[in-house]
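Budget justification, computational time. The allocation requested in the original proposal was used primarily to generate structure tokens for proteins on the priority list. As evidence of use, we reproduce two of the resulting records. The first is shown immediately below.
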Amino acid sequence: MSIQMESTPHLTSLCSYVALDSVGRGGCGLFGSLVQPTFLSYFDNPSPSSIGGVVAAFSAGACFGALSSALISDRYGRLWGLRIGSLIAVIGAALQAGAVHVAMLITGRLVNGFGAGVLTATFPVYASEVAPPNIRGALGGFQMLMISAAIFIATAAGYGFGTSFTNDAQWRGPLAVQAAPLLLLVPASFFIPETPRYLISRDKEDQAYRVLSKLHRGCSEAFIEGEITEMVDQIRAERAMFTPNWAEIFQRPSWRRRILLIAGLQIMAQLTGINCIQYYASNIYEQLGFSTFDALRLNLIYGAFGFIFNIFWVLTIDRFPRIRLIIGSLVLMCAALLTQAVLSGVYDKRSYVPPNALRAQVAMFFVFNLGFMAMGMLTWLIPPEMCPMVMRAKANAVSVAVNYVAGLVVAEVAPIGLAHGASSSSSSSWPATWWRSRYYMTSKLSLEEMNINFADELVDHLQKVAPEYHSQRSPDAPTVSDANKLENTLVEESVKS
């Protein structure tokens, strides 16, 4: 059922606190360390390819961590995924902060990345399974909000340690700071409820009912019973028909279609150039003529604006169809990077660059950031909400792994490109019209109704639900007959092709 209901303070605070895992994302801790003089001297001025290896190690570890998250969260629960990921990420942060040579630093990045991969693949699943449809975007968007907070904290730590110390604390400090939120999350997770959908999948319906009652405080008993009925009927039907393994999620056509769509979304997000800008922003600013500490200061301001932009999108994301936000953000990012590239091409070879030209180039990175924060939020939000319960954790694990693999490629080639003077990229001009023709509405549907978009089985239990629950059904919510019509359409299209 597509139900219109307000977020309770309990539900909002729950998702925001669980999203603390993203503040401890180890990938951000390196932002302020790469350009510190003591970092460069300690590691004997590493080559661009060595720096690329250090940066890329995080993405490599995160890829394997993301894939492992499905095993953990499906077998032991979403909360155990958060706990295990946090502990592993803390170990990785300690290895980085105490690194005595490049190999140890890379090892720490790998371990930290593994933990972060588990975390970032688990939280979107958790948020999607506790949030009602009309505020699922806002609650799921807390992950991107906390990632932007992590970027700001990392750049602030880099600037603070860089201006306050002249020894190795310049670069070790920012790498150590990232562990603090993760240490808070582990004990707090024992006071946070498991998702009702996971509990139902483990035949713990009474416990799921109690959790749902707490999450939806203020709602009537009939409303909660109706929602439980929807979850139980659909999850039972899926479990009776499928026991998905890794091979099956690629063999079943409707599931494979989901995987291709969400993988394409993740690749598109990475090819916008965001990781190049975030990891190497300080280097880019130095290439534009700013001093090291001016570059760090600009990076700090960039991170602060990113956090502000995320607050804006959290408050507004559920007011727009997902696909319109994707297309709009792509257009904005492409325009910003093309403008920056033109300005760079015009002024790079001149002996004197007007201050306003430099300011305009920097401003384009901020405009780009506004667009990407919407895009980034959707890359974490859309994959778990598109998938049924029986494959949600696995599909989201694949989605996040693809994100990190694409990020790994960008991290490897970016420093080499920067060394040759390529200060920006404009890969965000993906064919948005192609994507629009293949993407489905998700923002008005419950997770159980999402099968309609792919002509999958949907249990028609409407007669079992309390009248009060019927009255709150959104007029835009599709029905089983809609699914049958869509299935016939897909069959006709396949015959024609």
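The second record produced under the same allocation is shown here.
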Amino acid sequence: MTTTTATLRMLLLICISLGQIRLVSMQSTNVPLDGTYLITMVADPDGRTDMFLQINGRDSGFVAYGQGDAVAGLVVAVYLRAGTRVSARYTGHYQGATSLGVGFVSHGSRFVTLRCSGQSSGPPNVVKFDHRFLAARIWSRNFVKAHNLQIYISGIYWLAARPDCRNGAVSLDVGTGLFNVFCHGDRAISASGAFYLQAGKNLIVTYKSGCYLEGATSFSYVRLEGNQQKYINHSQHIAFTAWTDRVGGQKKNGKLSFNKAKATDYGFLYNSAQRIWIIPTTGSYIMSMRGDPGGYTLKVTCYKNNKYVFAWFNEHGSKSGQAGVFQFTKGDWLYMANEYGRYVGKETFMSIALLWVASE
């Protein structure tokens, strides 16, 4: 992470559906098409930073904030009309890993984005969500009220959960062993990734302990496959364009070594000797990493073709991660390295999924 100087203005990396990249200094972009978008926001604090997601100049109610030197993130799926302005405002001081990403998913991909309907604390319980957010396309009011989010179509889904732990400690579990988010202090952090889910699966979000706030605790999921069918032959592999895998073992510094090294799974070639992924298709990708520092401080960095892409940093043992939307070219290679600190293998993972194939 690079310290911001007095002359540096916030640069927000916007990666739009058609494979175009722009660096925007005015902290906003207008989306080009009607459809479903994944929005990522990362706050890299220098003391304290609050970042507020805005839609057409109004606060959406979603915020990423952190204190100390802990990177905080947000991933949310929304339906936006062409011309809608997406921006972020901030308070406090930020550093170089601060970013905003907007990635087009499809014209009609089904998704759910829910905020908590109340402040809760006490014993383990199912998180209660509120369905009212930006006219989100909820499949059925019934399963929302029952807090039992059922998958109706098998496919690749991007799941994102983020608790607002206020000044206590919150442990948020998604599904049955998919992933967990843990934070403490006054932070709103997140973790997300791509997972293949069978029709009929129930996604139940529970909290184990602590107290979460209404406004910043959310859960979001969106199906990713529908927009790519005319480009990719899915008969090769049902999850051709996504990969989520956990790191093996308990490690200190060095490149991250992952459990799986199958050459053709999900369309990504993983070279276990060099510990790199090779991008199979030119297009827009959403990528996330999630670290478990095992009670210590941890910094994990992602590199593309040996050049820095982004980093995840946290302290005091919080289990969280961050995500961004990026343009990658076929043949690009990525690797992850932990710069310092120790991580726990079963809770540290990296995920990448293709959002849209670039125009030929």
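A brief technical remark on that second record: The two ends are 35 Å apart (CA to CA).
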